[in-house]
Amino acid sequence: MSEEQLFRPNFHFTPKSGWMNDPNGMFYYKDYYHLYYQHYPDDNVWGPMHWGHATSSDLVTWKEQPIALYPDELGYIFSGSAVVDHDNTSGFGKNGIPPIIAMFTYHNPKKAEAKKTDVETQGIAYSLDEGLTWTKYDRNPVIKNPGARDFRDPKVSWDAEHKQWNMVLAAGQETYFYSSANLKDWELLSTFGEGIGNHDGVWECPDLFPLKVQDTDETKWVHLVSINPGGPNGGSATQYFIGDFDGKKFMVDENFKDEMQKKHDFWADFGKDNYAGVTWSNISTSDGAKLFIGWMSNWQYANEVPTETWRSAMTVPRELRLVKSDGIYRLVFRPTDEIIGHRGKKHKEGGVTVNEETKLVDSETIDLSRAELIFDISDIEDGGFNFKLTNSGGDELSFGYNGNDKNFYVDRSKSGKIDFSKNFANTIITAPRISKATSLSGRILLDKTSIELFYDDGLNVMTEIFFPNAPFETLSIQSDDDKLKLKHVEIHELKFN
Ligand code: FRU
Protein backbone atom coordinates (compact mmCIF):
# COMPACT_ATOMS: atom_id res chain seq x y z
CA MET A 1 0.00 0.00 0.00
CA SER A 2 1.34 3.43 -0.85
CA GLU A 3 2.02 5.94 1.88
CA GLU A 4 -0.84 7.97 0.44
CA GLN A 5 -3.33 5.08 0.72
CA LEU A 6 -2.11 4.05 4.11
CA PHE A 7 -1.79 7.36 5.91
CA ARG A 8 -3.72 10.14 4.14
CA PRO A 9 -6.73 10.83 6.39
CA ASN A 10 -10.29 10.33 5.13
CA PHE A 11 -11.88 13.35 6.78
CA HIS A 12 -9.15 15.55 8.21
CA PHE A 13 -7.52 18.39 6.32
CA THR A 14 -3.98 17.80 5.03
CA PRO A 15 -2.05 19.85 2.49
CA LYS A 16 -1.58 18.08 -0.85
CA SER A 17 2.15 18.29 -0.39
CA GLY A 18 4.70 19.90 1.86
CA TRP A 19 4.77 20.86 5.48
CA MET A 20 1.90 22.24 7.60
CA ASN A 21 1.63 23.41 11.20
CA ASP A 22 -0.72 25.85 12.96
CA PRO A 23 -4.17 26.78 11.64
CA ASN A 24 -4.19 30.51 10.85
CA GLY A 25 -6.57 33.28 9.85
CA MET A 26 -9.81 31.32 9.99
CA PHE A 27 -12.91 33.32 9.09
CA TYR A 28 -16.32 32.60 7.61
CA TYR A 29 -17.70 34.73 4.80
CA LYS A 30 -20.38 34.34 2.16
CA ASP A 31 -20.99 30.63 2.76
CA TYR A 32 -17.31 29.68 2.91
CA TYR A 33 -15.12 28.61 5.78
CA HIS A 34 -11.57 29.77 5.24
CA LEU A 35 -8.63 27.98 6.76
CA TYR A 36 -5.09 29.27 6.34
CA TYR A 37 -2.15 27.43 7.79
CA GLN A 38 1.56 27.58 8.48
CA HIS A 39 2.98 26.04 5.35
CA TYR A 40 6.33 25.27 3.78
CA PRO A 41 5.52 24.13 0.25
CA ASP A 42 9.07 23.14 -0.75
CA ASP A 43 9.76 20.42 1.78
CA ASN A 44 8.08 18.10 4.25
CA VAL A 45 9.80 19.66 7.26
CA TRP A 46 9.36 23.09 8.86
CA GLY A 47 11.01 25.89 6.85
CA PRO A 48 10.39 29.47 5.67
CA MET A 49 6.76 29.94 6.56
CA HIS A 50 3.98 30.85 4.14
CA TRP A 51 0.24 30.92 4.70
CA GLY A 52 -1.37 28.06 2.79
CA HIS A 53 -5.09 28.38 2.18
CA ALA A 54 -8.09 26.05 1.90
CA THR A 55 -11.82 26.70 1.67
CA SER A 56 -14.87 24.62 2.49
CA SER A 57 -18.61 25.09 2.42
CA ASP A 58 -19.29 22.23 4.84
CA LEU A 59 -16.21 21.92 7.10
CA VAL A 60 -15.62 18.43 5.68
CA THR A 61 -14.50 18.82 2.08
CA TRP A 62 -11.62 21.25 1.72
CA LYS A 63 -10.39 22.78 -1.50
CA GLU A 64 -6.79 23.86 -1.48
CA GLN A 65 -6.35 27.38 -2.84
CA PRO A 66 -3.21 29.18 -4.03
CA ILE A 67 -0.76 30.15 -1.31
CA ALA A 68 -2.09 33.29 0.37
CA LEU A 69 1.02 34.91 1.89
CA TYR A 70 4.68 34.50 0.94
CA PRO A 71 7.68 35.45 3.06
CA ASP A 72 9.22 38.82 2.15
CA GLU A 73 12.11 41.05 3.19
CA LEU A 74 10.57 41.56 6.65
CA GLY A 75 10.61 37.83 7.30
CA TYR A 76 8.73 34.56 7.28
CA ILE A 77 4.96 34.71 7.76
CA PHE A 78 4.24 33.17 11.15
CA SER A 79 0.85 32.50 12.73
CA GLY A 80 -1.97 35.00 12.97
CA SER A 81 -5.64 35.60 12.34
CA ALA A 82 -8.12 37.31 10.02
CA VAL A 83 -11.33 39.31 10.44
CA VAL A 84 -13.99 40.72 8.14
CA ASP A 85 -13.86 44.52 8.50
CA HIS A 86 -17.59 45.05 7.81
CA ASP A 87 -17.53 48.80 8.54
CA ASN A 88 -14.28 49.40 6.67
CA THR A 89 -12.65 50.80 9.81
CA SER A 90 -9.27 50.15 8.19
CA GLY A 91 -10.09 52.15 5.06
CA PHE A 92 -8.79 49.33 2.83
CA GLY A 93 -12.31 48.62 1.48
CA LYS A 94 -13.22 49.70 -2.03
CA ASN A 95 -16.54 50.20 -3.81
CA GLY A 96 -18.48 49.00 -0.79
CA ILE A 97 -16.53 45.73 -0.56
CA PRO A 98 -15.53 45.16 3.06
CA PRO A 99 -11.88 44.19 3.30
CA ILE A 100 -10.74 41.03 5.05
CA ILE A 101 -7.78 41.91 7.26
CA ALA A 102 -5.14 39.37 8.18
CA MET A 103 -2.71 40.06 11.00
CA PHE A 104 0.36 37.87 11.29
CA THR A 105 3.84 37.73 12.73
CA TYR A 106 6.90 38.60 10.71
CA HIS A 107 9.77 36.39 11.83
CA ASN A 108 13.12 37.71 10.68
CA PRO A 109 15.40 34.68 10.11
CA LYS A 110 18.61 36.74 10.01
CA LYS A 111 17.90 38.30 13.37
CA ALA A 112 16.91 34.90 14.72
CA GLU A 113 20.20 33.45 13.57
CA ALA A 114 22.11 36.31 15.15
CA LYS A 115 20.24 35.55 18.39
CA LYS A 116 18.75 39.06 18.51
CA THR A 117 15.77 39.75 20.74
CA ASP A 118 13.71 41.81 18.29
CA VAL A 119 13.20 38.97 15.81
CA GLU A 120 9.42 39.25 15.56
CA THR A 121 7.06 42.09 14.61
CA GLN A 122 3.41 42.17 13.53
CA GLY A 123 2.15 42.93 10.06
CA ILE A 124 -1.18 43.14 8.29
CA ALA A 125 -2.50 42.41 4.80
CA TYR A 126 -5.93 42.91 3.24
CA SER A 127 -8.03 41.06 0.72
CA LEU A 128 -10.80 42.47 -1.45
CA ASP A 129 -11.66 39.16 -3.12
CA GLU A 130 -12.95 37.15 -0.17
CA GLY A 131 -9.58 35.95 1.05
CA LEU A 132 -8.16 34.63 -2.20
CA THR A 133 -5.43 37.20 -2.84
CA TRP A 134 -3.81 39.56 -0.37
CA THR A 135 -2.01 42.88 -0.43
CA LYS A 136 0.44 43.51 2.36
CA TYR A 137 0.17 46.92 4.02
CA ASP A 138 2.95 49.19 2.78
CA ARG A 139 3.63 50.49 6.29
CA ASN A 140 4.32 47.13 7.89
CA PRO A 141 5.18 46.31 10.56
CA VAL A 142 2.20 47.79 12.40
CA ILE A 143 3.64 46.71 15.74
CA LYS A 144 7.38 46.92 16.24
CA ASN A 145 9.18 44.62 18.58
CA PRO A 146 9.15 46.11 22.11
CA GLY A 147 12.24 44.13 23.13
CA ALA A 148 10.43 40.86 23.66
CA ARG A 149 11.48 37.39 22.64
CA ASP A 150 8.91 35.05 21.05
CA PHE A 151 6.56 37.95 20.35
CA ARG A 152 3.95 36.46 18.08
CA ASP A 153 0.67 34.99 16.86
CA PRO A 154 -1.77 37.97 16.95
CA LYS A 155 -5.42 36.96 17.24
CA VAL A 156 -7.77 39.81 16.32
CA SER A 157 -11.48 39.97 17.10
CA TRP A 158 -14.22 42.58 17.16
CA ASP A 159 -15.24 43.37 20.74
CA ALA A 160 -18.93 44.31 20.50
CA GLU A 161 -19.13 45.12 24.20
CA HIS A 162 -16.31 47.65 24.27
CA LYS A 163 -16.64 48.68 20.63
CA GLN A 164 -13.04 48.11 19.68
CA TRP A 165 -10.84 45.63 17.88
CA ASN A 166 -9.08 43.46 20.41
CA MET A 167 -5.86 41.65 19.72
CA VAL A 168 -3.97 39.23 21.90
CA LEU A 169 -0.52 37.89 21.16
CA ALA A 170 2.02 35.79 22.98
CA ALA A 171 5.30 37.15 24.30
CA GLY A 172 7.66 34.74 26.04
CA GLN A 173 5.56 33.28 28.81
CA GLU A 174 2.88 35.96 28.86
CA THR A 175 0.13 37.30 26.67
CA TYR A 176 -0.23 40.98 25.66
CA PHE A 177 -3.61 42.60 25.03
CA TYR A 178 -4.00 45.40 22.50
CA SER A 179 -6.89 47.39 21.05
CA SER A 180 -7.38 49.38 17.89
CA ALA A 181 -10.03 51.44 16.13
CA ASN A 182 -8.71 50.84 12.60
CA LEU A 183 -6.67 47.60 12.69
CA LYS A 184 -3.52 49.60 11.82
CA ASP A 185 -2.74 51.54 15.01
CA TRP A 186 -2.51 49.33 18.05
CA GLU A 187 -2.34 50.30 21.70
CA LEU A 188 -0.91 47.96 24.32
CA LEU A 189 -3.48 47.66 27.13
CA SER A 190 -2.16 45.08 29.56
CA THR A 191 -0.30 41.84 29.97
CA PHE A 192 -1.31 38.53 31.52
CA GLY A 193 0.23 35.34 32.75
CA GLU A 194 2.51 35.99 35.67
CA GLY A 195 1.99 33.48 38.44
CA ILE A 196 -0.81 31.60 36.78
CA GLY A 197 -1.07 28.62 34.47
CA ASN A 198 1.63 26.39 33.15
CA HIS A 199 5.00 28.01 32.44
CA ASP A 200 7.08 25.03 31.43
CA GLY A 201 7.45 26.37 27.91
CA VAL A 202 6.91 29.29 25.56
CA TRP A 203 3.36 30.67 25.28
CA GLU A 204 2.05 30.74 21.72
CA CYS A 205 -1.10 31.16 19.62
CA PRO A 206 -3.51 32.75 22.13
CA ASP A 207 -7.18 33.53 21.58
CA LEU A 208 -9.63 35.70 23.53
CA PHE A 209 -13.41 35.81 23.18
CA PRO A 210 -16.61 36.11 25.23
CA LEU A 211 -18.80 33.05 25.54
CA LYS A 212 -22.15 32.41 27.18
CA VAL A 213 -22.14 29.90 30.00
CA GLN A 214 -24.38 27.12 28.74
CA ASP A 215 -27.97 27.25 30.06
CA THR A 216 -27.48 30.62 31.79
CA ASP A 217 -27.49 34.30 30.81
CA GLU A 218 -23.97 34.74 32.10
CA THR A 219 -21.10 35.57 29.77
CA LYS A 220 -17.45 34.97 30.58
CA TRP A 221 -14.26 35.55 28.61
CA VAL A 222 -12.21 32.62 27.40
CA HIS A 223 -8.46 32.94 26.96
CA LEU A 224 -6.74 30.08 25.10
CA VAL A 225 -2.96 29.84 25.37
CA SER A 226 -0.90 27.16 23.68
CA ILE A 227 2.36 26.18 25.33
CA ASN A 228 5.43 24.35 24.08
CA PRO A 229 6.70 22.33 25.86
CA GLY A 230 4.61 21.87 29.03
CA GLY A 231 1.68 19.81 27.77
CA PRO A 232 0.09 17.34 30.22
CA ASN A 233 1.60 14.40 28.31
CA GLY A 234 4.76 16.14 27.13
CA GLY A 235 5.49 18.50 24.28
CA SER A 236 2.96 21.01 23.02
CA ALA A 237 -0.64 21.50 24.20
CA THR A 238 -3.28 24.19 24.76
CA GLN A 239 -4.32 25.45 28.18
CA TYR A 240 -7.17 27.85 28.90
CA PHE A 241 -8.24 30.48 31.40
CA ILE A 242 -11.77 31.71 32.15
CA GLY A 243 -12.46 35.17 33.51
CA ASP A 244 -13.55 38.70 32.58
CA PHE A 245 -12.24 41.30 30.19
CA ASP A 246 -13.12 44.94 30.90
CA GLY A 247 -11.87 46.30 27.60
CA LYS A 248 -8.33 46.63 28.95
CA LYS A 249 -7.46 43.81 31.26
CA PHE A 250 -8.17 40.10 31.49
CA MET A 251 -8.87 38.92 35.03
CA VAL A 252 -9.15 35.24 35.84
CA ASP A 253 -12.21 34.12 37.77
CA GLU A 254 -11.25 33.59 41.44
CA ASN A 255 -12.70 30.06 41.79
CA PHE A 256 -11.08 29.10 38.54
CA LYS A 257 -7.76 30.42 39.75
CA ASP A 258 -7.97 28.53 43.07
CA GLU A 259 -8.85 25.35 41.26
CA MET A 260 -6.07 25.78 38.71
CA GLN A 261 -3.60 26.38 41.51
CA LYS A 262 -4.72 23.18 43.24
CA LYS A 263 -4.59 21.13 40.07
CA HIS A 264 -4.04 22.39 36.55
CA ASP A 265 -6.36 20.30 34.43
CA PHE A 266 -7.59 23.11 32.21
CA TRP A 267 -6.51 21.81 28.82
CA ALA A 268 -8.44 22.08 25.58
CA ASP A 269 -7.19 18.58 24.88
CA PHE A 270 -5.22 16.18 27.09
CA GLY A 271 -3.89 14.20 24.14
CA LYS A 272 -0.55 14.77 22.50
CA ASP A 273 -1.85 15.90 19.13
CA ASN A 274 -3.86 19.08 19.29
CA TYR A 275 -1.81 22.26 19.25
CA ALA A 276 -2.08 25.95 18.38
CA GLY A 277 -5.86 25.71 18.05
CA VAL A 278 -7.89 28.90 17.78
CA THR A 279 -11.41 29.89 16.71
CA TRP A 280 -13.09 31.04 13.50
CA SER A 281 -14.08 34.68 13.23
CA ASN A 282 -17.35 35.99 11.80
CA ILE A 283 -19.38 32.94 12.79
CA SER A 284 -20.81 31.03 15.72
CA THR A 285 -23.46 28.32 15.98
CA SER A 286 -27.10 29.22 16.65
CA ASP A 287 -26.55 28.84 20.41
CA GLY A 288 -23.39 30.96 20.30
CA ALA A 289 -20.76 28.19 20.38
CA LYS A 290 -17.41 29.02 18.80
CA LEU A 291 -15.80 26.94 16.08
CA PHE A 292 -12.31 25.70 16.82
CA ILE A 293 -9.65 23.72 14.97
CA GLY A 294 -6.17 22.63 16.04
CA TRP A 295 -3.02 21.29 14.45
CA MET A 296 -3.05 17.50 14.96
CA SER A 297 0.58 16.97 15.86
CA ASN A 298 3.16 17.74 18.50
CA TRP A 299 6.44 19.63 18.20
CA GLN A 300 8.17 16.65 19.84
CA TYR A 301 7.92 14.63 16.61
CA ALA A 302 5.96 16.58 13.98
CA ASN A 303 8.99 16.80 11.67
CA GLU A 304 9.62 13.05 11.84
CA VAL A 305 6.22 11.37 11.42
CA PRO A 306 6.30 8.72 8.68
CA THR A 307 4.46 10.56 5.92
CA GLU A 308 6.55 11.82 3.06
CA THR A 309 4.45 13.68 0.52
CA TRP A 310 2.91 15.89 3.17
CA ARG A 311 3.27 16.35 6.90
CA SER A 312 0.48 16.92 9.41
CA ALA A 313 -3.28 17.10 9.49
CA MET A 314 -5.72 19.36 11.34
CA THR A 315 -8.12 18.04 14.00
CA VAL A 316 -11.77 17.91 13.04
CA PRO A 317 -13.43 21.30 13.48
CA ARG A 318 -14.96 21.39 16.95
CA GLU A 319 -17.71 23.37 18.65
CA LEU A 320 -16.49 24.94 21.83
CA ARG A 321 -18.86 25.77 24.70
CA LEU A 322 -18.54 26.99 28.26
CA VAL A 323 -20.15 25.14 31.16
CA LYS A 324 -20.11 25.52 34.92
CA SER A 325 -19.34 22.15 36.44
CA ASP A 326 -19.12 21.79 40.24
CA GLY A 327 -18.88 25.59 40.50
CA ILE A 328 -15.93 25.78 38.11
CA TYR A 329 -16.05 27.12 34.56
CA ARG A 330 -14.81 24.65 31.99
CA LEU A 331 -14.69 24.35 28.25
CA VAL A 332 -16.37 21.46 26.49
CA PHE A 333 -15.67 20.43 22.93
CA ARG A 334 -17.61 18.35 20.45
CA PRO A 335 -17.07 17.60 16.77
CA THR A 336 -19.24 19.84 14.60
CA ASP A 337 -22.57 18.48 13.37
CA GLU A 338 -21.17 18.73 9.86
CA ILE A 339 -18.78 15.87 10.66
CA ILE A 340 -21.01 13.62 12.72
CA GLY A 341 -23.93 14.23 10.37
CA HIS A 342 -22.14 12.16 7.72
CA ARG A 343 -23.31 8.82 8.98
CA GLY A 344 -23.52 5.79 6.73
CA LYS A 345 -23.84 2.18 7.87
CA LYS A 346 -24.73 1.64 11.51
CA HIS A 347 -23.89 -1.13 13.88
CA LYS A 348 -25.65 -1.19 17.21
CA GLU A 349 -25.30 -3.20 20.34
CA GLY A 350 -27.50 -2.56 23.34
CA GLY A 351 -26.47 -3.59 26.84
CA VAL A 352 -23.12 -5.34 26.47
CA THR A 353 -21.76 -6.87 29.63
CA VAL A 354 -18.06 -6.46 29.26
CA ASN A 355 -15.53 -8.89 30.67
CA GLU A 356 -13.64 -11.15 28.33
CA GLU A 357 -12.50 -9.51 25.20
CA THR A 358 -15.66 -8.91 23.16
CA LYS A 359 -15.40 -8.12 19.50
CA LEU A 360 -17.69 -5.22 18.64
CA VAL A 361 -17.13 -4.82 14.94
CA ASP A 362 -14.75 -5.67 12.11
CA SER A 363 -13.96 -4.01 8.84
CA GLU A 364 -16.44 -6.20 6.95
CA THR A 365 -19.22 -4.44 8.83
CA ILE A 366 -17.81 -0.94 9.23
CA ASP A 367 -14.72 0.71 7.79
CA LEU A 368 -12.80 1.53 10.96
CA SER A 369 -10.73 4.15 9.22
CA ARG A 370 -13.77 6.45 9.07
CA ALA A 371 -16.03 5.64 11.93
CA GLU A 372 -17.76 7.09 14.93
CA LEU A 373 -18.23 5.09 18.13
CA ILE A 374 -20.71 6.21 20.76
CA PHE A 375 -21.20 4.51 24.08
CA ASP A 376 -22.91 5.00 27.39
CA ILE A 377 -22.22 3.43 30.77
CA SER A 378 -24.80 4.19 33.43
CA ASP A 379 -22.75 3.13 36.40
CA ILE A 380 -18.97 3.26 36.16
CA GLU A 381 -18.21 2.91 39.91
CA ASP A 382 -14.58 1.78 40.06
CA GLY A 383 -14.83 -0.12 36.83
CA GLY A 384 -12.67 0.40 33.79
CA PHE A 385 -12.75 -0.59 30.16
CA ASN A 386 -10.30 -1.06 27.37
CA PHE A 387 -11.03 -0.69 23.68
CA LYS A 388 -8.65 -2.26 21.22
CA LEU A 389 -8.16 -1.62 17.52
CA THR A 390 -6.18 -4.33 15.76
CA ASN A 391 -5.05 -5.42 12.32
CA SER A 392 -3.90 -8.84 11.12
CA GLY A 393 -0.28 -7.66 11.19
CA GLY A 394 -0.41 -7.47 14.97
CA ASP A 395 -0.58 -3.69 15.34
CA GLU A 396 -2.77 -2.57 18.16
CA LEU A 397 -4.05 0.70 19.56
CA SER A 398 -5.70 0.52 22.94
CA PHE A 399 -7.57 3.21 24.77
CA GLY A 400 -9.98 3.36 27.65
CA TYR A 401 -10.56 4.24 31.26
CA ASN A 402 -8.85 3.02 34.39
CA GLY A 403 -11.34 3.11 37.26
CA ASN A 404 -8.67 2.74 39.95
CA ASP A 405 -6.86 5.97 39.23
CA LYS A 406 -9.78 7.56 37.35
CA ASN A 407 -7.71 8.24 34.27
CA PHE A 408 -8.54 7.96 30.61
CA TYR A 409 -5.64 6.62 28.59
CA VAL A 410 -4.33 5.84 25.12
CA ASP A 411 -1.51 3.38 24.55
CA ARG A 412 0.08 3.59 21.13
CA SER A 413 3.18 1.54 21.98
CA LYS A 414 2.10 -1.24 19.58
CA SER A 415 0.24 0.94 17.10
CA GLY A 416 2.53 0.37 14.10
CA LYS A 417 5.34 2.73 13.15
CA ILE A 418 6.52 4.27 16.39
CA ASP A 419 10.30 4.40 16.34
CA PHE A 420 10.68 7.57 14.23
CA SER A 421 10.83 9.45 17.54
CA LYS A 422 11.55 8.36 21.09
CA ASN A 423 8.81 10.68 22.30
CA PHE A 424 6.03 9.21 20.23
CA ALA A 425 5.02 6.11 22.15
CA ASN A 426 7.34 6.00 25.13
CA THR A 427 4.58 6.61 27.66
CA ILE A 428 0.91 5.87 28.04
CA ILE A 429 -1.01 9.06 27.42
CA THR A 430 -3.39 9.83 30.30
CA ALA A 431 -6.06 12.32 31.26
CA PRO A 432 -7.55 12.69 34.74
CA ARG A 433 -11.32 12.32 34.50
CA ILE A 434 -12.99 15.66 35.26
CA SER A 435 -16.60 14.60 35.62
CA LYS A 436 -17.64 13.07 38.93
CA ALA A 437 -20.82 11.60 37.50
CA THR A 438 -21.53 7.90 37.99
CA SER A 439 -22.44 7.63 34.31
CA LEU A 440 -19.81 7.94 31.60
CA SER A 441 -20.33 8.57 27.91
CA GLY A 442 -17.93 8.67 24.99
CA ARG A 443 -17.92 9.78 21.39
CA ILE A 444 -14.93 8.64 19.40
CA LEU A 445 -13.88 9.57 15.89
CA LEU A 446 -11.61 7.22 13.99
CA ASP A 447 -9.71 8.11 10.86
CA LYS A 448 -6.88 6.18 9.19
CA THR A 449 -4.23 7.80 11.32
CA SER A 450 -5.99 9.51 14.21
CA ILE A 451 -8.38 9.03 17.08
CA GLU A 452 -10.33 11.82 18.75
CA LEU A 453 -11.93 10.96 22.07
CA PHE A 454 -14.67 13.12 23.57
CA TYR A 455 -15.68 11.87 27.01
CA ASP A 456 -18.42 13.15 29.33
CA ASP A 457 -19.88 15.49 26.70
CA GLY A 458 -16.49 16.93 25.88
CA LEU A 459 -15.16 17.69 29.38
CA ASN A 460 -12.19 15.42 28.64
CA VAL A 461 -10.83 15.36 25.12
CA MET A 462 -7.87 13.36 23.83
CA THR A 463 -6.51 13.48 20.30
CA GLU A 464 -3.79 11.12 19.10
CA ILE A 465 -2.24 10.26 15.78
CA PHE A 466 -0.82 6.83 14.87
CA PHE A 467 0.65 5.03 11.86
CA PRO A 468 -0.34 1.36 11.57
CA ASN A 469 1.41 -0.84 8.98
CA ALA A 470 -2.02 -1.81 7.63
CA PRO A 471 -5.46 -0.34 8.36
CA PHE A 472 -7.07 -1.34 11.65
CA GLU A 473 -9.63 -4.08 11.06
CA THR A 474 -11.29 -4.99 14.31
CA LEU A 475 -12.55 -3.17 17.36
CA SER A 476 -13.05 -5.00 20.63
CA ILE A 477 -13.68 -4.12 24.25
CA GLN A 478 -12.76 -5.77 27.52
CA SER A 479 -12.91 -5.08 31.24
CA ASP A 480 -11.53 -6.74 34.38
CA ASP A 481 -14.69 -5.78 36.12
CA ASP A 482 -17.21 -8.50 35.26
CA LYS A 483 -20.12 -6.28 36.20
CA LEU A 484 -19.34 -3.45 33.85
CA LYS A 485 -22.27 -2.89 31.57
CA LEU A 486 -22.34 -0.75 28.49
CA LYS A 487 -25.91 0.47 28.38
CA HIS A 488 -25.53 1.32 24.75
CA VAL A 489 -22.93 1.06 21.99
CA GLU A 490 -23.36 2.41 18.50
CA ILE A 491 -20.83 2.42 15.70
CA HIS A 492 -21.35 4.37 12.52
CA GLU A 493 -19.35 4.42 9.39
CA LEU A 494 -18.81 8.01 8.35
CA LYS A 495 -19.60 8.51 4.72
CA PHE A 496 -17.84 11.22 2.74
CA ASN A 497 -18.02 11.50 -1.00
C1 FRU B 1 3.33 27.40 17.07
C2 FRU B 1 4.35 28.28 16.38
C3 FRU B 1 3.92 29.72 16.44
C4 FRU B 1 4.61 30.32 15.27
C5 FRU B 1 4.56 29.20 14.27
C6 FRU B 1 5.75 29.13 13.35
O1 FRU B 1 3.31 26.09 16.62
O2 FRU B 1 5.61 28.08 16.98
O3 FRU B 1 4.20 30.35 17.66
O4 FRU B 1 3.99 31.48 14.81
O5 FRU B 1 4.46 28.00 14.99
O6 FRU B 1 5.55 28.22 12.33
From TrEMBL:
It comes from the Bacteria. SUPFAM superfamilies: Arabinanase/levansucrase/invertase, Concanavalin A-like lectins/glucanases. CDD domains: GH32_Inu-like. One of its GO terms (biological process) is sucrose catabolic process. Residues 343-493 form the Glycosyl hydrolase family 32 C-terminal domain. Signal peptide: none annotated. Keywords: Glycosidase, Hydrolase. InterPro entries: ConA-like_dom_sf, Glyco_hydro_32, Glyco_hydro_32_AS, Glyco_hydro_32_C, Glyco_hydro_32_N, Glyco_hydro_beta-prop_sf. GO terms for molecular function: sucrose alpha-glucosidase activity. Residues 12-326 form the Glycosyl hydrolase family 32 N-terminal domain. GO terms for cellular component: cytoplasm. Belongs to the glycosyl hydrolase 32 family. This is Levanase/fructan beta-fructosidase. It comes from Pricia antarctica.
